Amino acid sequence: MLNRHVFILPLLLCSLCSFAQIELGLKAGLSTESLQGEQFGIDRDGRDDLMLALQDADYGFQFGALLRLPLGEKLTLQPEVTFNSAKNNYTFSDGAPEPTQVVFEERYNDLNVPVLLSYKVAFLRLHAGPVGHFFLSETSDLGSQYGLERTFETFNLGYALGGSVDIGPLTVDVRYDGNFAKYGETFTWQGDEYRMDQAPKRWIGSVAYRF
């Protein structure tokens, strides 16, 4: 059902552009995941055998489409559909006196649907609004190397705050993307689940071309 919506939404965006004063834009940009360090103790027989920690978060990329719907002289509604791909690095160690540590990589993809209300102040557009995060897929060294299973929530509701500047048909946008819910993912080890305590946060910089 979600895959069907992914194809329908861009078609709806294009059809709406037939109305006067409505602008369609194509956008692309970079995002930085700002998750802080996490540490998990995985117990077996009363002792910590394995430790898992988030080392750092890498840059991701995104691309998609936007609509700019004028609601007044300075007020604008801007719905968007963007594909986002991000990468995280983790350290994995055992509980030995001299623990062995290995760094592994994980990449996950999601579909973001922000609906932003924008207000123009001089040359700057300030915007804020809710963001729907739809999980699509992930690839990780976890399962293949260590037998750990991961679970992502299929949907999270978040928010975006930021600003943009129009330069002719181009729009340069910087925003902070947060989440109302926790990260919504669990690690499964020997039938026990361990949940991350944080919500995903990221800074996003993008450039859009408006038609």
Protein model, in words:
The protein is mainly beta. The protein has one domain: Porin. 10% of the residues lie in helices and 68% in strands. It contains two helices and 13 strands. The strands form two sheets. Strands 1-4-5-6-7-9-10-13 form an eight-stranded antiparallel barrel. A hairpin with a 2-residue loop joins strand 2 and strand 3. 21% of the residues are buried. The model has no long low-confidence stretch (mean pLDDT 78).
Set out the fold topology:
Blueprint: H1 2-16, E1 23-33, E2 39-44, E3 47-57, E4 59-70, E5 75-94, E6 101-121, E7 124-140, H2 141-146, E8 149-152, E9 155-167, E10 170-179, E11 185-189, E12 192-195, E13 202-210
Antiparallel strand pairs: 1-4, 1-13, 2-3, 3-5, 4-5, 5-6, 6-7, 7-9, 8-11, 9-10, 10-13, 11-12
Which properties best describe this structure?
elongated; three-stranded antiparallel sheet; 2 helices; 211 residues; eight-stranded antiparallel beta barrel; 10% helix
- Overall form: elongated
Q: What distance separates the N and C termini?
A: 30 Å
Radius of gyration: 20 Å
Overall structural domain count: 1
Second-tier CATH architecture: Beta Barrel
Q: What is the oligomer described by this structure? A: single chain
CATH topology heading: Porin
Note poorly predicted spans. none
Q: Helices and strands, in N-to-C order? A: HEEEEEEEHEEEEEE
What strand line-up does the widest sheet have?
1-4-5-6-7-9-10-13
| Strands, count | 13
- Tally the helices: 2
Assess the beta-strand content as a share of residues: over 45%
Largest sheet: 8 strands, antiparallel, barrel
Structure classification: mainly beta
The percent of residues in helical segments reads under 10%
CATH top level label: Mainly Beta
